[in-house]
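WARN no homologs supplied; continuing
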Amino acid sequence: MAGLAARSMVALSFTLLTLGVVSALALFLGALGLYGVLSVVVAERTREIGVRMALGATAAGVRRMVVAQGARVVALGVAIGLLTAFVATRALSGLLFGVAAFDGPTFAAMASLMLVIGGLAAYVPARRASRVDPCESLRSD
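OK structure emitted
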């Protein structure tokens, strides 16, 4: 009987393992994409950041500005993701055993994790932007 039960769970276990791998890959690609987008935005604004620094903006102020812009994008993405996940739980409820379709702690944990990853992805370009030499940025182009 145990062997029969184990064989009947193989397909479900494979499906859940595949979903876990795809989810981890999506998390990694999302963080990488966010970092790439923010890096390009900061690179395009090098002259503006140089002018701000030449006019007296502090490195901390520039970091704060870039991280705040990244945080807005991340917050919007998390809000859209939570809404989509809430709707998608209806379709996936047949795969869940012993867990409610809407698991509040899981939703909160994943939203928090995405906010932290988004903050880190925004901080790296922000740190690079705060090191811009105003003279060099104005001479480029």
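The chain has a mean pLDDT of 83.
OK
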